[in-house]
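#struct-pred

JT: dropping the chains for the assembly here, can someone run the whole complex?
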Amino acid sequence: MYAELHCISNFSFLRGASHPEELVERAVELGYHALALTDECSLAGVVRAHQAAKEHQRQLIVGSEFRLVDGLELVVLATNRASYGRLCRLITHARRAAEKGSYHLTREMLAAEDLRECLVLWTPGVRDNLRATGEWLNGSFAGRLWIAVELLLRGDDKRRLAALQALGRELGIPLLASGAVQMHIRERRGLHDVMTAIRLNVPVSQAGKALLPSGERHLRSIDRLQRLYPQELIDETRAVAARCTFSLDELRYEYPHELVPPGETAAGWLRKLTEQGVLERWPGGAPPRVRELIEYELALIGELQYEPYFLTVHDLVRFARSRGILCQGRGSAANSAVCFCLGVTSVDPARQEVLFERFISRERNEPPDIDIDFEHERREEVIQYVYGKYTRERAALAATVITYQPRSALRDVGKALGFDPLQVERLARMMHWWDGRNIADERIRGAGFDPANPLIALLLGRVYELLGFPRHLSQHVGGFVISQGPLEELVPIENAAMPDRTVIEWDKDDLDDLGLLKVDVLGLGMLTALRRSLDMIEQFRGQRYTLASIPPEDPETYRMIQRADTVGVFQIESRAQMSMLPRLKPRNFYDLVIEVAIVRPGPIQGDMVHPYLRRRNGEEPIDYGGGRDEGGEVRKVLERTLGVPIFQEQVMQLAITAAGFTPGEADDLRRSMAAWRRRGGLEKFEGKLYKGLAERGYTREFADRIFRQIQGFGEYGFPEAHASSFALLAYASSWLKCHEPAAFTCALLNSQPMGFYEPAQLVRDARTHGVEVRAVDACVSDWDCTLERREDGEPALRLGLRMVKGLAQAAARRLVEARSRSPFTDAEDLGQRAMLGQRDLNALADAGAFAKLAGNRHRAAWEVAGVEAPLPLPVRTPGEGIPLLPAPTEGETIVADYRSLGLSLGRHPLALLRDRLREQQVSTAKELQAIAHGARVRTAGLVITRQRPASASGVTFVTLEDETGHVNLVVWARVAEEQRRPFLEAQLLEVHGELQRQGEVMHVIAERLIDKTRMLGALKTKARNFH
Amino acid sequence: MPKPAKSDVRTLALFPADPALPAQPSVRELPVELPRRKPVAPLAPALQQPPGSAHAQPGKGQLWLAIHLSRLALESGLETRPRDPLGEQTLLEKIAAWCHRFTPVVSLEPPDELLLEVKGSLRLFGGASALVESVAAGLRTRGIEASLALTPTPRSAVWLARSRGVRRIEASGQIEHPVVERAEDLARYLQPLPLPVLRWPEEIVQRLVSMGVRTTGGLLRLPRAGLARRIGPHCVIELDQALGRHAEARRRFRAPERFDERVSLECEIESIDRVTRAMESVLHRLQRFLRVREAAIAALMLRLEHRAGPPTLVRLGLAAPTSDVAHLHSLLREKLSKLELRSPVNALRLRSSALLASIAANARLPCALPRQVPGASGGFESFPLPAANALPRLIERLQARLGRAGVFGIGSLDDHRPERAWRATAFDGVSRSFSPPGPAKVFAALGETFAGGTRPLWLLPDPEPIFGGVADPRSEATPSAGQAWQIESGPERIESGWWDGSDLMRDYFVARSPRGIRSWVYRDRRAPRRWYLHGLFG
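RK: done, full complex below.
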């Protein structure tokens, strides 16, 4: 029996050509006694291998191979928990001593490491001074050092074996057999060659001897190994494997202790904090229902010993609040009564119907799931707080494994196979329209290639193999692991691309698999905008609102939402959401929760949307899938959504109550849902689901819908808890838009980039809602947009200097400061006193910010071009002749506005082109309102959004804007592909198509697309002809 | 064709490898410091003139004709090609050479313009308009799209010609070439020109546009001092130059020199021998020509004209530039000796490539005193050669006799597959580019030991099947002596090459043939798993 002790996976990036799981499965098939996964200075793949080995009840040995700076190659294996910790530390040290993605290890560093109880395999190279190296190694690792003999049919195997045997005898080092494995089967040889070429950045044909000479580095059959190696070398592998008793299951996570003050227990402290919260939230005492919930939740938390987790989350939220950073938790556990009391969420338990007992599942014994969103611009403060409080030794970000996607795989393989870079780019660009894992033949043909061509077949073959391979580790957006002990003894830590960031080598799924706990610290732009709005309102009106105290269930706000008048608000501003709003007509908070969740791939693919709408409008009776629902369990699950499952939890519960899954199985199903797009594996649930539903009398059609919905959830699974957190932000932002549009728009502008719309649309929308917007002015504007008090006491929105393209923030700060000392007299004065360079002055002149100081843009440009570089002492140049400059025309002004500010307070550009458009029978957005369903129409406008929802099977929604409003286009995939250039490139798009109406919703189904962008340029031409 | 990268020329086929010989003859390896190899145009005659005359003198009473080559295809976006500066330069030079028929004063304005000073030629061509028309007509017949303008200053001529180009594209009608003979009229013509015509830095144009200035006229309306302060004095000077308020000089263009001589023979020659002799006097003049200019050449074309039929061309490309005419002579003789005359020769023409700076510094070396070479036909001067020249000379001579493809080098290639681990390399000292030779008749002679197994020096061009097979070394059965092949060592497994359609899967062994020859054999790992002989150890 044999144990392979030197084997790398594709987590040795671009070196190993098999997934860890594949290696384990193949080793099991071949009857290996054990397998060591020894990726190069990395443990990034071990969790996956561990899971696979566990499934097959086979031993997995954790190890890592190293190549020292002097060329010495070693494999280090962990025997027990302590030696595993030392191996992690060794990897951490080697990784942290080098740039991201590489490592640095010398003999001195190795000698300084504590590697007690680790086993070492030496793979002697040709150039080593074998004797000296052997003696050196023997000095440090005597009794746990082996020479790994790797016979790979290089032509001199016999000689090599004999030489190593002599060396072993001489130095007293035992020998063992090893395969130096880099792939699970020999058929990966081609992929291995491609990866080598990618790594070296040359075509395969020029990689030469850098490629493997043969495919021998695969897991070989025991039979062949026995013919190649003396039996004692094979037996030795077993002996080594027997010494490695460590399993990743031994890792136990310890929560940080410091959150509990001395003399308190975790449970007691959590209760204290919760009770404090109750007093704040309900000064008169919590309602009985809530009190009951709190007691229930605390009991459950206590039973599972999750108090430290809630305390950790509470600590972050407390910190954020002390700094005035707006935040909100989401996730199943976040919307609990306890979290409401702790201030983690603002969703009042009284305002929603989530069933709390599922917020942590007893059966799953899985850490609770809470993500906390912070203001995106201030998330870094929270991150630094975490590092500061727990130190880098105890806190690090989780990794995200970046894997090959169709586009990157095509690019890299194409390059490796020597395709012309332009050709590859053309192919890769077709992957724009990627859906699922297949690269459709039409795409290949679309890029001008013949899918039947052998070279293309070769290319695609390798691309399919490479898809899903890890490419590098990146940092997770905000998933923190915090531990009581040093983290580097739990998992290796390496440098991230960002300075001052470190990541652990495992990703979220790995952490989940091992039951380790993480806290997600995420950034959300809307929180920034909301906090700014609330600040401005307080400043302007003296009234402070919070997320929890914004007046709930305001009818006026809901009326606005029902009109889909939601440009700029959270979540429900997208095209798809907007077209749903007039149909769903949300009337209360729970309707918003449904609205947020229903326009998602799951419900859309599961065809849940229309049944729900019909039932809501009373056009269809409410039923529960037609099954025998003894005890009304299913009814209980689906009642609040009228019998239509919309949330992820409902589907899980259905699997249990209606299809007979155990809770454990339902949970497996949930995990598979998240991963099936990448790994597949839903099939095993499919049969069970259908059978279970059929047995209980549910209709086939109901079962189909459920299964499609499960598929649709895929990576976008949307739990009710998330939906209610989002709905709260949607409501808060809608309320602000409805009642404080100036402050809200101002905050949005100051928080850009975010959301679906550009500043131009936000400003236009604000103006149609009666907000007075004032131009950027060097004599008045601050860096941010601000509110100015009008004569009637209402706010007007003053655009800030941040809107000016090309103006440095530091320059703007100097300007504001100089102005605060005394007002500017002219452009020269401004330039001198604010110490502005030509670039900044030009930027201001282009933006029209000198209107008061210098007159029109042309005069301003002339003035600032004459401003000398700032001198220590202002030197006034003598007067010059007056320049004869033409005044800018309206067209020029608008074009300059757009160029410099991205928006114009003047007329819409299309208003100027309207006469010419009318000659071409182009209708305005407003005129379209009066045209009947089914009519053929022509319209044109600025393209403001192109949106292609993953769920919409190839449809792209394009929104055009003209001076009268918006037109929504539906562009089918065929049209988009046939008319790609205008479709993708036009800024001003003319469309011929068919007008369609569904109730209040109107679309134009695009047939012909014409790029009219040149007409925008013609504004200038025309303007020039005017003078 | 894969790029032959990462290979090094190891040995020359048919030659013993001599590490003392440089693999590539190179100027830099000569023992004395020499001028860099670069074209020396304009050559000596131009330089011998007083410096001022190389330039057209600015002054009154000039008239400049600008030729702006149209880029219609590029402008209209029908087709975009990467720019080719060398091609542009060549085209300009060709046109300039042709323009010399109108005036001696031609100046190149890369990338796409030429200037001709034509004041002195007006009478000859019948006035300004007629001259412009005949230049335009001449260019048209040569298939060159261009717009022209004739004005008193070079800069205004160029601007106007350019602007006509622009107008032409917009209207795509026939164009009239502007002719402005009086400086007073210039301002009127220049006023409507859009700013891009001036080809000022984009940043300056942008700045002007932001002031609402879009034409030259707009510029002229601004206060001069203020303008100079804002866009820099250079631009204002250019304006003045265009208007004739400021003088401007242009560099005169002269065509690069080459030797080109044609000799009509008094009587027709029918024997090669006599052609060779007739050639000698021309070669003498070539030698003088090169010596005066301290120049060398890299190629020579001999053209034999016949009474009837197309001329015979003899092209001589050299491994390294030379000014040694004796060497050229012997090479030509070598070439001619293999020639068969189809009909009698009545004229011959010898034309060199463009001149290069001479590498024949040997003339100045103390050890290289000219001496008569006894027996050398025609008594050419010849010099002892540095050793570095011996190899290229030998190659040139062999190539002259065996044809270029008949002599080649061998390079090792970076590939696991034995048959792809070498290649033939052409030997061409001038271009140094790789050109594939004809069918290889030479065994690979690589003595490289790879990590692992040993490889033989001699590879068969195609592996030969071994009938009767080879005893499988891994089976216990001992092959009977004298009959079967005997495995000595191995296997070395080679599996590589799927990407170019010749994927190998072989196990190589060192084996003795039944006749005792140490050989390199392999077993194909694919069915029917046959054995092949692939190489022989020495």
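JT: nice. The first helix of chain B runs from residue 44 to 48. The radius of gyration of chain B is 34 Å.
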